[in-house]
Please model this.
Amino acid sequence: MILTGPAIAAAKAAGEITIEPYEPKRISPNAYDWRLGDTLRFHDGSLDAAKPTEFQEAPIPDTGYVLRPEVLYLGTTYERTGSETYAQFLNGDRTIGALGIWVHVSAPLSHQGHAIRWTLEIRVSRPVRVYPRMTFGKLVFLKALGAMASYQHHGLKYRSSQGIETSRLYEENPGGPA
Model:
């Protein structure tokens, strides 16, 4: 079950949802409108799942930053969000998609107990200028059925994420470092 905008506001007021910083005007009928953070990491070469990926990092200036096709960008949400009560689902939105920006397609689900600034995978179909803290997508909160299982109690590798996280698949990959 997805929370409506008024239910998100009530859950935030009750302390069941973390959104920092929080702006009530960003609540839409069934979501919270999240913003792009202030920094990008990027990689435009080949990737190897068995090795850590080296990225360059750049702040997004107030005048904007032009994203280019064929480059993998990692960003972060400006807001830190989470809940012990609700799971979250993060996506881009219609306005971002209409600019040819694909954001966070591969891992839109965040588990209960995971309060983070989301790492975003960003790809573009053509050059497009983005700005720090611009609205970049929608975050919905989902009521889970069954016993609660906080992400923090599972010892998973991204449980303490607070900024841009690169892939750590190499930690699991049999061909990667021990």
User: Anything to note?
Assistant: The chain has a mean pLDDT of 86. The chain has two helices and 14 strands. The first helix runs from residue 5 to 13. The helical segments are 5-13, 94-97.
